[in-house]
Here is the input.
Amino acid sequence: MKSLLIVAGILSLSIMTQAQEKNDEAGRNRDLFTGTPRVVTPGASFSDAPSDAIVLFDGRNLDQWVNTKDSTAAKWVVADNCMTVNKATGDIQTRSLFTDYQLHIEYRIPADITGSGQARGNSGIFLAALPWGAGGYELQVLDNYKNTTYVNGQVGSMYKQAVPLANVCRKPGEWQTYDVVWTSPKFSADGLLLSPARVTVFHNGVLVQNNTTLLGDTPYIGYPSYRRHGPAPIKLQAHGDKSEPISYPHIWVRPL
Here is the structure.
C-alpha cells in the first residue's frame, strides 16, 4: 500500500511538472510578438511635421484648402508665414477627407484684440466638417485670457457639449497650440451608430479633453445628434463676430 502511494505521488508530481512546463511554454509564446512598428522620423521642433504627416499649411500657400460654401480656392490672407481668417469669404476646409487622425494646429489671437465674451477672437476647428445641421464637431477657438464666457463654449471645449478640464490660454499676441487625437464615429450600412466619436485634446501642452465621448455634433442651439457619414474634411471657421481675425501658422495631420 505504501509503495502504491509513493508511485501515485511520483506520477502526480510528474503530471504537475509537465503541466507547468506547458504553461511556461505558452507564456513564452504569448510574449513573442512578430513584426516591428514602422519608423517615423519626428520633426526637428515641436511645430515641425513628422515624416508620415500630411502638411496642411506651412506658411506658404492654401493649396490644401477650399472655401466651404462653394469648394473654390480658399481666399484667406497668407502673409508673414501664416494664414489669417478672411471673414468676408467665410469658412475654409481641407481638400482631403479624414477619418481617425492626430492633428497639430497653431494659432494666434491678435495682440490688439477687442470685444468680450464670444465676440473676442472667435473661431473653431471642425474635426469632421459636415454639410448639414451644426456643420460637424467643433473644437472651440476663443480668447479666454481674462475673458469669461459660458464654460461649455470657451476655448478647449467641444462646443456646447464638453467642458475643458482647464483654461490654459496664453496672452493675446502669443502663439498657442492644439494637439488632437480624433476618433470618428462609426456607423452601420443602414445608419445605426456603432461607436460614437471620441476626442483627446492638449491645449498649449495641457490636457483639456481626455478621451471624451461625444453625444453627436455640436449645435449652437438644440441637442447633439448623429447622422451617418464617412471620411470628412477638417474645417476652420471664419466667425462673424466683429473682433480682429486670428491667424494660423502651422497645421499638420497624421491619419491613423
User: Anything to note?
Assistant: The longest strand covers residues 175-183.
